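Replying to the earlier thread about multi-chain prediction with a worked example.

Input:
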Amino acid sequence: MDVNEKYFSNITTRERAIFEGAISMGALFHQFVGTPINKNTKEGLERAMEESLSLQPAIEKVEVNIRFDKLAESMTEFDYTSLTGDMLDVRIHTKVEDISAIIRIEFIEELNYPLMYVEDIKD
Amino acid sequence: MDVNEKYFSNITTRERAIFEGAISMGALFHQFVGTPINKNTKEGLERAMEESLSLQPAIEKVEVNIRFDKLAESMTEFDYTSLTGDMLDVRIHTKVEDISAIIRIEFIEELNYPLMYVEDIKD
Amino acid sequence: MDVNEKYFSNITTRERAIFEGAISMGALFHQFVGTPINKNTKEGLERAMEESLSLQPAIEKVEVNIRFDKLAESMTEFDYTSLTGDMLDVRIHTKVEDISAIIRIEFIEELNYPLMYVEDIKD
Amino acid sequence: MDVNEKYFSNITTRERAIFEGAISMGALFHQFVGTPINKNTKEGLERAMEESLSLQPAIEKVEVNIRFDKLAESMTEFDYTSLTGDMLDVRIHTKVEDISAIIRIEFIEELNYPLMYVEDIKD
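Result:
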């Protein structure tokens, strides 16, 4: 079976690059929010998040930065906290044929919301 | 702040309808996979999944069907199992201005994979 | 196979009642934190959480209350937020033979931490 | 506030060692099940799981082994799969005062179930 032919011929290459990155961003957020974390485990978790999401279709690279300021703000008496959406600053790079897209999540103070959007897309 | 103007003016209405549905499909999968379930709790969980994902931007309606055959296949000695991706048959309907899209997940035996794709999109 | 004989003969009935409730409390937190929620979907999600965790071994009843004050505090421009640990006020009731235990989670301001503990245990 | 005095004086040291390990085992399962994984990312994910759960109260060490045979069985056309409970072989070591406990999860074929139990406990 040609998966692309059968399931993706109704959308453009640009739309596919956006589609795959958006799936992976939704996945990343809802898979990892809640994970126990502190400053010592921050880097290891960032790498594991990057590696796992990079396995999904059309994903070229994932850059995860867990915001240290937000991490510090929510610290508990037990010297760790749970990962929350406002700590996430992530770029997911997708490539489909000649189209490259970057899907971004970042916390927007004005909205009190971790916004996902298409930061860049080009051929 | 006009969020649409500031963050989404670089993509088309069609692309936005695809983008928002794809995020919510990735979210649904990774939020709920692992949940304890059996035939008695199937409907309640389907409704909770539908309601929670319907809150996200541009989502008009969510239809979740947890496949009973796959649920039965994985049943344990303790009369429940964990929700897995191959049980999911879901349609997420998005609407952005005059564009309506349906994002689908269904398990494709030939790929041994729960595939997410754009089932329909129109204006 | 007698599961209790083979795997649980090294602990007391009291310990088993605590063990099973603690597993389910850890499960509840890490399964559902991150779920999109607002005041309209609060009750449906509470019921789905209760039903799913009630399936696990030795669980008699689960009472989930999502704190409305904490939910309101974290509300976003998009009229929903993500479930966090500080919103959780939950009691899990277990019963093993003649022993009944209640495992509780509640947010303790002084610790800035959603503490899990054994609220009550008796025969 | 003395947390131990206020919240844990109703259970024994042995019960506390079991309680804390059981919470973390339930947490581990429900936090990470669903994560994209293949043989190349297996080790990084194992380490991230170990590090994150080691942050929780009373946890001395966590040993995560993701079963390669189960991983291979569920492999998809896209060269990755989702982490499931039957892949998990984990030991969580807890210590409370003079008591050491090991909480284990392993998949038991006869039950078709990833069983959590107290593998060892001693002073």
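Chain B has a mean pLDDT of 97.

Feel free to reuse this layout for your own posts.
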